[in-house]
Amino acid sequence: MDKSVTVLCVVPKSQREMKMRHQTWQALCERFHVIANETDRNWTSDELAERIGDVDAVLTGWGAPPFTEAIWERANRLRLIVHMAGSVKFLFPDDTVQRFCIPRHITVVSCAQALAVNVAEMTIALMVLAARRLFDHIAAYREKGVWRDPSLPTNFPTINGSTVGIIGASRVGREVLRLLRTFRDVRLLLHDPFVTAEQANELGATLTDLESLFAESDFVSLHAPPDTRNGWDDRRTPFLADERRRHFHQHGAGQTGGHRRFGSGAANPPHLCRLGCHRP
Is the pTM of this model over 0.90? Predict the structure, then answer.
């Protein structure tokens, strides 16, 4: 127990309770002097600047305010920033890392790898659910009151015995590859311009071009950062429509969640799961 160390938790109460077990929070409070954001909203940079004086460590999360120059001017004791989310880029605008973090020897920790494990689990789950057309069956039951709608194809691929294509060897992409290697008789393809064939082989995959990946895969999992996908849909959609992708359907796809599925009319419909993107 060291009550001389002050920890400032910027994360709103609702978000904190979602991310941290009660016993973990209690242990933190018992060991250190903790100042918490007990509201259900994120503080602004000005509000953080008002509170950061004499603080040794800061816990941030989704929607946390960026560390402005006014914050650094008052952060006279700050030595540790723990970000309970993925990317920390938005926390440090302009040249604040070079001007403040590095000269002051401030340690910045991200939970991106821990989150990648959870997102990878969801990716595998979506592959299984999409292949079995659970979302189509739910929609049919909701709209028609029919379970096991005869208009829906009954044949579906399983991960075992399938070819799975991974776009982007990000943290999530690598975790998905790791989980897929536990299945039997799975062929893994990888497209990533920053990965060599040898590196792909170490991940248990075969490096290939994007066209071959889509043409040969039963499942496709997309984990490329948003800034590498500019214009991708416009260029690739015609190709997908030509290569066994006779129908394109989207279920709330987004950067950090959601799922896309191709081929509801195809004999062996390939599926695309699009989830969190974290470049290692």
Answer: no
